Amino acid sequence: MPDEGKLIILYNLGLGTAAKRNVGSATGTNQIPDMSSFGSGTQWFRLPTGNIVQAWQATINGADANGTTINFPVPFPNALYAANTIWVDGSTIAPIAYKIIGHTKTTVTIKASGAGTYGTLIMAIGI
Description:
Layout: H1 3-12, E1 23-24, E2 32-33, E3 40-41, E4 44-46, E5 52-61, E6 68-71, E7 80-87, E8 98-103, E9 107-112, E10 117-126
Parallel strand pairs: 1-2
Antiparallel strand pairs: 3-4, 4-5, 5-10, 6-9, 7-10, 8-9
């Protein structure tokens, strides 16, 4: 069928330009990745862009002057873009503050403002 006939069929069915693309594991410009482009594991997932999102819980020891160093569930191959912490231990005492005082591609070091131990949700994004 000539290209003009294909375009008429696409138009009549209300299909846009995505209907002309192949679906597969390619992630380049004008590609439609399939689910194999989204890697995942326990506490992390990877987007087709290569960005990795991780979220997990750890215990932070506020009495440690050097902070608590925690390993990422999976190392970032290139760089950490951002990390954040949320206090999640369910206690009713006054909230504490966190400060990220260091990181590598495999670890993050977190300092807590209080002197106790704190259940903490950590979320990190990198590539």
